[in-house]
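Deliverable D4.2, example record:
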Amino acid sequence: MGFNCGIVGLPNVGKSTLFNALTNTAAAAAANYPFCTIEANVGRVPVPDPRLEQLARLAKSARVIPTQLEIKDIAGLVRGASKGEGLGNQFLGAVREVDAILHVLRCFEDDDVAHVEGGVDPIRDAELIETELLLADIESLERQKEGLVKRVRGQDKRAKARLDLLERILPTMQEGVPARRLDLTTDEHALLDGFNMLTDKPVLYVCNVEEEAAATGNAWSERVQGFAEEQGARTVTVAAGIEAEVASLDGEEEKREYLASMGLEEPGLNRVIRAGYRLLGLVTFFTAGPKEARAWTVPEGATAAEAAGTIHSDMQKGFIAAETITFEDYVACGGEAPAKEAGKMRLEGRDYRVKDGDVLLFRFNV
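Output generated by the structure prediction step:
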């Protein structure tokens, strides 16, 4: 099951540097000129979760396997991208393929790093990209409207419902309202998904600050925080230079010492990954035993049978029950056997909605 976030932003805001740090590779060329990332680089990163290590210790697991998130580094956008300027068409196509957007904003001054818009202003940059995505959405809706009109003439009821929705939301979007902020019912949201709107994707604003502001943020990141709250979005503050340095260090102790010297408890990218995970509406369940302790990803609201299917399709087909212990009970009791003895294990059926932190053992028949 693939879940992915796309790193977007104007050229020279630190996208590729952050991507390199996230994936701990040099796959994306980081250079001081626009379009240094020509193809959308892709990396898979482990989702930091200290709960997994605790479970592994209690279960005496030989291996620890975290869940992962796919990150795509997308070529920088410039003004006019919705009309194909720069690498506009490629940029928009890459954004359309991701589930959520990590929008990197430059929140630092540096005369040695050129800014494509001539000066630092993260709010302007955020609005610029949002406008280009919105213009692309409007153009897409106008194209789709023609096809829907033809299908409605053929008495297609679903096409009629989609056309009615399109005609209602198009004027609002033309006034500057992105799809994610439209006031829609649950049924209308389901119809909207079929339009594949760029501005319907959830957004996390990543404020890239100077190293001295990594722990506290700065005036620019504070402005972005206020802007994000107005948009119903979230922010994370990082210093790309620090993240790149941490990624280049070999030992964990060396990394901790370096972070401590910068006034940080953990890499900022850990917070980016966790925030991106939450942005996608995902939850984690665990399996733990002598062979391995492992974290698994499912969408919020997934059933026990669907969770079993993320491990193997046969487990979903032959699902019988899920032995379920909450993470808190597993740790408090000291492991699986003590938790069962304390009456903390319960059997759940196939329609049980998996909770974040559940430790599961599936019973199935093939």
